Amino acid sequence: LTPPAMAQPPPAMSMKKIAVMTSGGDSQGMSGAVRAVVRQTIASGCIAYAVYEGYEGLVQGGDLIKRMQWEDVRGWLSEGGTLIGTARCMAFMERAGRLTAANNMVEKGIDALIICGGDGSLTGADKFRSEWPSLIDELVTTGKRTAEEVKQFKHLNIVGLVGSIDNDLSGTDATIGCYSSLGRICQAIDYIDATALSHQRAFVIEVMGRHCGWLALMAGVSCGADFVFLPENPPSENWEEEMCSVISKHRKLGKRKTIVIVAEGAHDRQLTHISPDVVKDLLSNRLHLDTRVTTLGHVQRGGTACAYDRMLATLQGVEAVKAVLEATPETTSPVICIVENKIVRKNLMEAVKMTKDVAAQIAAKDFGAAMAGRDAEFAEYWQAFHITTSTDTEHLKLPTEQRLRVGIIHVGAPAGGMNAATRAAVAYCLARGHTPVALHNGFPGLCRHHDDKPEGSVREVEWLDAESWASKGGSEIGTNRDLPSADMEKTAFCFEKYRIGALLIIGGFEGFTALSELRQARTKYDAFKIPMVILPATVSNNVPGTEYSIGSDTCLNALIDYCDAIKQSASASRRRVFVVETQGGASGYIATIAGLSIGALAVYTPEEGIHLKMLVEDIKFLKDQFAKDKGSSRTGKIILRNEKASKVYTTEIIANIIKDEAEGRFDSRFAVPGHVQQGGTPSPMDRVRAVRFGVKSLQFLESFTGKTKQQIAEDPASTSIIGIRGAKVKFSPMKVIEETETDWKQRRPKDEFWMQLTEVVNTLSGRPQSALHR
Ligand code: ATP
To answer: Which of 166, 564, 618, 686 is catalytic?
Structure first.
C-alpha cells in the first residue's frame, strides 16, 4: 500500500477536536479504523472523541459522545465489528435531528467528524456538512446557543471512510471489511466443497449484496464456482438453459461437485428475483443433482478483520485525520479510497452519486452501464471468471497459426495463490486454443525429464487437471529453487524439444533471477527468444517491479492469527511481551505490515537494523506501557523481528534481554512461527489476484504472436514482470527493473514503497523517536 505524502504539521488551530463514528451495517475493521483515528488525532496534538451508536449517539449526545484516550483503543485492531457501536437512526434523516446533533457537537466543541460507514451514512454526513452553517444560525436564532458560543464553529469538516462488507462504493477498489467478509465466505465454501465432493452434490450458496455482486463474483473466482448470479450483470434471457448447460458440461468433463453462488440481490434481466431455491429446483429437476441450499447470512459480518482490512482501516484512518487537518473551508468533503495499492482522497459526494447511479442503472435494466459504473477491476474479474469456468469457448479461439505452446513453471518456495494462477493460465490457454504445458518441479525437473524421461515431468494440462486448484495451497506442479544457469544448455535444449513458444514463471526472487538469466542467455540460445513473463509469488514480497506478490497476503493472515493467539495467551496469564520472528529474507515488508495489522509495539527490520540504543529505548518504552496498563486485561504485547534484522541481536537474545531488564515487572518470550507463515489455504485476496494476474499474463504473452524471434529478442518488453505499482497494474521490462531497481545483494527492490509505513506503525504504537536514532 502506498501511503499518501506526509501531511503538513497541524496548523495553528491546535487542540482541534475530532470525532469518529461508525454507522450503518457493521463490518470487520471498523474498530481498527477508530483506533487509528483516535491515536493519529492524539499524536497530532488534537483531542479525540468517539460518537457511540452512530448518528443516534450524535443526536442523543451526553455520554454517547465520549472523549477518547490513547489507552482506550488498545487491542482494537484484533476486534471484529465496531466497539463504539453502530445504528440506523431515523431522527438524523430529519432536519430537527440534525439540529440537535449540531447542538451536541457545539457543546462538546467538536468541529470535525470522521464517519466510517456505507453510502447512506456518507450521504447523511455530507448533508449535515452542507446544512451546518444554517443549523448553527438556527441554534443562535432559537436561543439555544449564543453568537459567542458558535463563533469558532462556522465550518464543519467531514471525512468519509468506507466501512462496508459488500464493497459497494464506487471510486474505491476495496471497502473496510470486504476482504474479511470474502474470507468468511470462502472459508465456508471451502468447507462445503469437501462434503459436496464426497457426495457429488450441488450447493447453491447465497451471499450478501443487495445491489452489489462483488462478494458473489469474488467468491466465485476464488472458490472456482460453476456459476454466479450478480445484480449488475444478470445472465442471459435464457439463463436457466445457460446455467444447466454450463454445469452439465462441467459434470461431463468429470467434475464431482457443483457450486453456484447467488448474490442476495440477484435477478434476471427483467429484474425478477432469482432465489437460491429457484436455482436449486432447476438443478434438482433438470439435472437430477442432489442439491442443497446454504444461506451464509450474518456469518459474513462476523469474526475479526483479515490483515488487509486491518491495514486498510489503519492507513485510511490516519489519512482521514490528515485530511481533517489539511482542510480549509473551501475543501469539499473527501472520502478516503484505495486504488490498487494507493490510498487516495476522492470527492465524497461524487463517489456516493456514482454508487447511487449504479443502483439506478440496475433498476432501469441498463446493465452495461451498471458494470461500467463499477471499477475496472470488477470487469476484469468478471472476464476472468468466465474464462476459467466456461467450456463453451469456440468463439474465443485464435486462428491455428497464432496458437502457442505455453510453458508454466513454478520457481522458489511455495506461496499461496500459485495454483490459482496456474489454473487461470491453463483455462485461458484452453479457451484461446493455446496448449498449456506444465513444467513440473522447476528447472531441475525440466532438465531431469530430458535425462531420465520419467512420465509426466513436462505435461500438457487438461481443464479438469487444473479445475480443482483454485483454493489449493502449495504447488500442484511442484516447485524448485534451482536456476536455469545450473544447466543453461540443457534448459535451452528442453525448450526446443518441447516447443515452448511462451513462458509463464510463477515465483519469487528466484523466479525473477531465473527470468533474468533466460533473458541474458538469449544472445546464445534462440530457444529463449520467446515472450516470457514472471508473475511474482512469494511470502516475502521482495520481488522488484511490483509492490505486491501473491502469497504475501496469505502469509500476513497466518502471522496475524498467530500473533492474536499468543497475545491472548499472554492476557490470560502473566504480563508478557513476545518477540516474534518473521520470515521475509532481507526484506522487512512482512514484519512491518504484520506490525501495522496487529498493533505491534515495535518492528525490527533488516533495512533499519537493530542497535543497542534502540533496545534500551524500547525497553524503557515497554516498562512505561506496562506501568500504564495496570489492571488492564489486554496486556500481551508484541515486538516483531524479521529473521535477518540483525546478526548479533537474535530473537531469543532480545527476549532474554527484555526479561532481564524487566526485573520481574513483566515477562518476555520469543516465538518463531516458521513455515506456518506460508499459510495453509491461500487467502481470497491472493487467489483472486492470482487469477487476474494469470489471465493478464497470458494476454500479455499472446500479444507477441506473429513476431519473429529476432523481433522478440529486440523488444525489451518481451521479458517482463507483472506487478502492482501505485494505482496501476503494469508490465515492466525485466532489463529496466534488473538494472535500475534491483538490490541484487540484498535480494529486494532498491526502493521499498512500504518503508514509509514504518512511521505509521511507530506513531500508532507511541514508540519514542529516540529508539530510531543511534
Ligand atoms: P450499509 O452499507 O450497511 O447499508 P449505510 O451507511 O449505507 O451502510 P444506511 O442504513 O443507508 O446504511 O444509513 C445509516 C444511517 O445514516 C441512517 O440510519 C441515517 O441515520 C443516516 N442516513 C442515511 N441516509 C441519510 C440521508 N439521506 N440523510 C441523512 N441521514 C442519512
So the answer is: 166
